[in-house]
Amino acid sequence: MIFLALACGPDGAGSAGASQATGEQLFKTQGCTTCHGVHAQGGPLAPALTGVAPYWTRDTLIAYLRDPQAYLKNDARLSAYSKKYSLPMTKFSTLSDEALVKIADYVLGLR
User: According to the CATH classification, is domain 23-108 in 3.40.50.880?
Assistant: First the structure.
């Protein structure tokens, strides 16, 4: 479950380089590792992302990444879980669809 991140979010790159980058590279360059950990193992700022595939589809994860706070309003499970972390997840509204697909596929593939 992707919930919160301090430095996670658009770095102003938009879709520049997204067509060349892998999901793992985008995960790193967008700063997700700052809160979720280098291996997405989680920590005090954000939850682990390994093994989240049963809870998400590609489309639902992309919708969440585009506007996490709006998504949480309609999901009691995520809303309750998000209270464990003090920082809200940053929107990825400036990333291209292609970049979001790559990040979602990377996260969904974490074991």
Answer: no
Q: Could you tell me the residue ranges of all domains in the chain?
A: 23-108
Give CA angle at 102 (96, 108), nearest 5°: 135
Which one-letter amino acid corresponds to residue 90? T
pLDDT tens digits, 75-87: 988 888 788 887 8
Sign of CA dihedral 102, 99, 35, 61: negative
The Cα 60–Cα 31 span in angstroms is: 21
Residue pLDDT, tens place only, 2-11? 443 334 554 4
Query: In residues, how long is the chain?
Result: 111
Residues near 58 by beta carbon (within 8 Å), at least 6 away in sequence: 101, 104, 105, 108
